[in-house]
Amino acid sequence: MTPMRFLPDKFILMLIAAIITASFLPVRGEFAEWFAIATKIAVGLLFFLHGARLSRAAVMAGLVHWRLHLVVLAATFVLFPILGLAAGWLVPGLRESAFYTGILFLCVLPSTVQSSIAFTAIAGGNVSAAVVSASASNLLGMFLTPLLVGLLFTVQGSHGISLHALEGILLQLLAPFLLGQLLQPLIGDFMRRHNKALGVVDRGSILMVVYLAFSEAVVAGLWHSVSWEDLAMMVGVDMALLALVLLITAFGSKWLGFKLEDRITIMFCGSKKSLASGAPMANAIFPSQVVGSVVLPLMLFHQIQLIACAMLARRYADRKLKRETASRASV
């Protein structure tokens, strides 16, 4: 394994650069208002493209694996929130941390699409089932994430999701997504052929959300209100959450009788959290002054999951190669 596998990818470096820029040169005043409008437009375009690119044929192809999909969804939207709440009670000082809201938020987000499928493919898992599970997670996340935000934040004593936030979800995220799905038969093939070029919109819109969020947070005094202890605690909780979910999905799926290919899919799809969905949702759900502290735990979790799952996928791939080599040698 080369050292490059452990380095942050280019997008993570761009996100870090956006945070640093916002820390020293936050957007303010009237320009901030115009930048916020541009960000909302970019996010709407992002979800329109997600809707237009999601192939209905791919969704139908994997629906037969309904038990697998139920386990993945349970890990994503049930196991994660339970662990997030438990962490608040078990980790001293976490509930008072400025980042606990962000940790709870990442626990209710849908799975990633691209990396879940990519790691499943590398490890030799059930790729078609991964496509369906990751896509279904993102579709259901449009509805479940706001509902779970309201539920979890009520449980921990905070206010649930507001009507204004629900309106933002419907108009800024769900409506463009549904419009993309309606137009998918007409433009879906074009979108998928130009997936790389359209990825600029994906990453560009997230960078805009992060820069705007941290600008608002810096103006509101974010870096004066958090400590190094808070940051260290957030990283530790992120790592513990990922490790626990990986272990539970790996051994739980084996106990449930799934074959190895399906267990790999459950583990990689059930342990991921989507920065692509999370950053725009945070921008729509939370007050602008706190979006920065909400998104930061998710950004770090995103990088941690990439490193850990890259190592696991490579290990599964090596094991598969050894089994195939041994099988050929015995013939």
From TrEMBL:
Membrane spanning residue stretches: 7-25, 31-49, 70-91, 97-122, 129-155, 161-183, 204-225, 231-252
UniProt cross-references to Gene3D superfamilies, sorted A to Z: 1.20.1530.20
Cross-referenced Pfam families: SBF_like
Keyword Membrane attached: yes
UniProt-listed InterPro entries: Na+/solute_symporter_sf, Put_Na-Bile_cotransptr
Keywords tagged on the record: Membrane, Transmembrane, Transmembrane helix
GO CC terms: plasma membrane
Coiled coil: none
Claim: Transmembrane helix is one of the keywords in the record: yes
PANTHER family: SODIUM_BILE ACID COTRANSPORTER 7 (PTHR18640:SF5), SOLUTE CARRIER FAMILY 10 MEMBER 7 (PTHR18640)
UniProt name for this protein: Sodium/bile acid cotransporter 7
